[in-house]
């Protein structure tokens, strides 16, 4: 059993600004997770979030490819998943102004546990790329301080949160018996 996640969003900001949000560790911490990222091929880094059954809250990554400001690939390993995330930026125009289309692919979810996790991540990505990252981009563009993005968006416990809570016991049980 295999599955991939594909996301495509267009933001009303130039590629250089979107690239900055994707490669600045402090900004990544705001829209995604706290981390020790460095924009350098071969750099191994971790991201941290709340633990859940079958997942210690640590995502181990490595920068596999870096082509500023157009493409970046990371390995992404945590809990039952061992995947690759690719970020691709394409210049676009929105209302006659520079914009960026961001394509994100997280590939190689293999096995039942990984596929279940992919559904949680896929649903969570709606918040990450639909609310958190746009919030960060808008603040950078206006020169405002970027902080407490999760707090600003936190009042919305969406479907992804409920789905993650529903499947966490199943994934946790399967990992303990493996």
Automatic annotation (TrEMBL):
Please name the Gene3D superfamilies in this protein's record.
3.30.530.20
State the name under which the record lists this protein: Activator of Hsp90 ATPase homologue 1/2-like C-terminal domain-containing protein
Concerning CDD domains, the annotation shows: SRPBCC_CalC_Aha1-like
Which family is annotated? Belongs to the AHA1 family.
Kindly give the InterPro entries that the UniProt entry links to this protein: ASHA1/2-like_C, START-like_dom_sf
Q: Which Pfam families match?
A: AHSA1
The Activator of Hsp90 ATPase homologue 1/2-like C-terminal domain covers 13-92
